Amino acid sequence: MLYEENITLKSLDDIDIRVGLIYPDVYENVTLSTGFELLYHMINDRNDCYCERFIYPHTNSLETKSSLKEFDILSFTIHHTDAYFKIIEILKKADIPILRENRTNDDPLIIIGGPITTSNPAPLSKFIDIFCIGEGECILNKLIDTYKKFENPKEHLNEFLDIQGVYIPKFNNHTKIALIDNMDEKFHNTNPIIVKNEDNEIVNTIRLDVLRGCSHGCRFCMAGYLYKPSRETSLEKLIEIAEAARENTGISSVYLVGPDIADHSRFLELIDELNKRNFNVGLPSTRIEKISRNMLQNLKDSGTDHFDIAPESIYKIRRSINKDFEDEKIDYVMKTAFDIGLNLKFLFLIGFPQETNEDIVDLSKYIKSIIKTRDDFDKNIELDFRVSPVVPKPNTTLQWQHFDIDTINSKIDIFLDELNDLNLECIGDTMMGRTYTNYSINLRFDFISNEDCFKDYILSCGNSELGDLIMNGSFNSPLSQWEQYAPKYDFDDVLPWDCIDLGYRKGFIKAEYKRMLKNKLTLWCVENKCYNCKDNCFENDFI
Questions:
Q1: Residue 44 host element (H or E)
Q2: 200, 516, 532 from 423: Cα distances, Å
Q3: Which residue from 203, 217, 228, 492 puts its CA 20 to 30 A from 58's CA?
Q4: Short-list 235, 286, 280, CA closest to 258
C-alpha cells in the first residue's frame, strides 16, 4: 500500500476551470512519468484552475474523489500504444460518449498528449477533440486561456487553431510541433508529491529535467526525431531545483531525466556536485561513448548498484542505424563496470533492415563473450539481457519498414538455439514477454513479446480506420483481428501523419532512409557539421 503527501487541494468555489489529468496506467508507473506530475503542478500554479489526477482503472480523482464528468477538460497523458484501449474503457466507465462527434457541450473537452500521439494522432482521431503536438508546457496554458474565452468552447474549436502544437481532427489541420526554447525559464517542479510505503518510507525520487531532445540521429528512435534539437537545463538551475525539492519534501534521491543525459555539457560536474550534496543519483541508459570510469564510480558511490548499456546489435547493424561505436568501447565500459562491482543490463534489438540470420548468430556469440568477460572478473555480478524486436515508428527512417512477425520469431529461435549451452530455464511468460534464467550463474534473459510488438507497430503506424478496432476490441484480441490493419507503406505514399510538421526540411528523413540502406553514417551534428535538417536548430538557447 502506498500513501501520498504534498498533493494540491483547492476550494472549488475559488476556481473557474477544473482539469482532470488522466494517466491510463497503474499507479506505480505514474510515479515514473516526469511530464504527468510536471503538468499537474504547472496547471495548479494557476489561480483559476484546479487540476486533479485520475489513475487507471479508476474514474474518480485522487484529490477529491470527483467523477470525470464533473470536469471541464480531461487531458490524457500516454506513452504506450496499449493505453489506447484503456482510454476507451475509462470513457465508457465514466459514461462519457466515446466518439467526439457524439459529445455535447455538457461533456468535458477531451485532449491528449505524449510522444506517440504527437508522432501519429490518426488512430485516436475519432475519439479526441484536441491533440497536443509537442511539449505540453508550450501548449496547455494557452489552451486553457482560449477555453476560458467561451461559454461553450466546443462550438469555437477553430479558435484553438492559432495555438502552435494544436491538432484538431475535425479540421485535420497542418500542425507544427511546439517545443520549449529555454530550459531554465520553463516550469520546473520543486515541490513533488511524496509517495510513502506502509513503513512510512519515501519510495519516489526527485526527477530532474536535465535535457530535452537528442541530436545524435539514431535512425530508429522516434523520440530523437520528434524532440530534436538537444536543449539543456543549466547546472546551476538543476542544483537549485534539487535543493529546493529536497527542502520541500525531504527526498534525497534524484533521477536524471533525458534522452541521453551524458550529452549535457556539464554532465560529470552535475553527478559530482549532487554526490557532494549527499544526493543518491539514478540515471537511464547512456550512450557508450560518453561513459567514463569516473562517471561509473560516482554512480557507485551514490548508491547505484546496476547500470544499463544499450549496444543495440553487432557493429555492422549499429553503423547502419547511425550508432557508430566499436565493440572495443563497449568492452571498456563493461570491464570498468565489472571492476567497480556494478551489475549490468544489456539492451539489444533485433529485426533491423538488412539484418541476416548470420548476424543473429554473431550477436549470440557476442553475448557469450560478455558472459565470459564477467566470469573473469566476478561470477557473482548479475547480468541481465533484454532482447526486443524493433518496432517501426512514424516520423523515423523505419516508417516504411514492415514488421514481419514470422521473421522475428525465426530469429528468436536461432538466438535461443545458439544460447542452448547456457542451460537457460524458461520461468514463464511475464507482462512483457518470456523470461529465461540461470540463477546459478547469475544470468537473466527477457525476450519482449513479438505479438505485442506487432500490435504496437500497427497502433503506432496505422490510420484512422484503427478506430473500429480500438473501440470494439482490446490489446489482447487475437492476432487474426489485427492482421487486416497492418500497414505497408511505399516510399512515396501519403502517410497518416503527414499533417504533423516536425520542422524537418523536405526529403531529409527519406535521405536518411537511403543512407541507412547503404550503411552510411550521418555524423553527430554537434561535433561535426550542421546538416540543415531542421530550421533554427541552434537559435536561442539550443546547445
A1: helix 34-44
A2: 42, 37, 51
A3: 203
A4: 286
Helices of type H across 262-301: 267-276, 293-301
Q: What is the DSSP letter of 114?
A: S
As beta bridge partners, residue 390 has none
**Residue whose C-alpha cell reads 511530464 in the numeric block:** 35
Cut 0.85: pTM above it:
yes
Residues of the chain short of pLDDT 70, as ranges, are: 430-431, 535-543
Residue 543: what pLDDT?
A: 31
The three three-digit cell numbers of residue 354, written as one number: 538488412
Q: Is the peptide bond before 284 cis (omega within 30 degrees of 0)?
A: no
pLDDT of residue 530: 77
- HSE value, Cβ hemisphere, 13 Å, CA-based, for 493: 13
- The CA radius of gyration of the chain, in Å to the nearest whole number, is 23
Report the distance separating Cα 387 and Cα 410, nearest Å.
14
Please name every residue paired with 448 in a beta bridge, in sequence order, or none if there are none.
433
- Beta-strand pair 383-389/443-448: parallel
Q: What angle separates helix 405-418 from helix 357-377, to the nearest 10 degrees?
A: 40
> Rounded to the nearest 5°, which phi and psi values hold at 405?
-65, -30
**What distance in Å separates the CA atoms of residue 261 and residue 284, rounded to the nearest whole number?**
8
If DSSP states are collapsed to H, E and C, what string results for 28-40? HHHCCCHHHHHHH
Beta-sheet strand order (sheet of 206-209): 206-209, 253-257, 280-282
Place of cell 516550469: 187
Which grid cell is 333?
565500459
Tell which residue, 378, 390, 356, 399, has the closest CA to residue 487.
399
**Is residue 312 within 8 Å of residue 355, measured between CB atoms?**
no
Q: Give φ, ψ of 378 to 5 degrees.
A: -165, 110
Q: Is 87 exposed, middle or buried (0-12, 13-18, 19+ CB in 10 A)?
A: buried
- Residues 248, 234: contact at Cβ < 8 Å? no
Here the cell at position 342 is 556494478
Choose among 287, 300, 290: nearest CA to 340.
Answer: 300
How far apart, in whole angstroms, are the C-alpha atoms of residue 41 and residue 344? 35
What's the pLDDT score for residue 216?
87
Residue 139 is given by DSSP the state T
Compute the residue count for the chain.
543
307, three cell numbers? 547500470
DSSP secondary structure of 400-459: T----HHHHHHHHHHHHHHTGGG--EEEEE-SSEEEEEEGGGTEEEEEE-HHHHHHHHHH
Q: pLDDT tens across 126-185, in order?
A: 999 999 999 999 999 999 999 999 999 999 999 999 999 999 999 999 999 999 999 999
d(CA 45, CA 8): 10
In sequence order, which ranges of 109-205 are alpha helices (DSSP H)?
115-119, 140-148
Q: Helices 405-418 and 450-461 sit at what angle, rounded to 10 degrees?
A: 150
How many alpha carbons lie under 13 Å from residue 277 in its C-beta half-sphere? 21
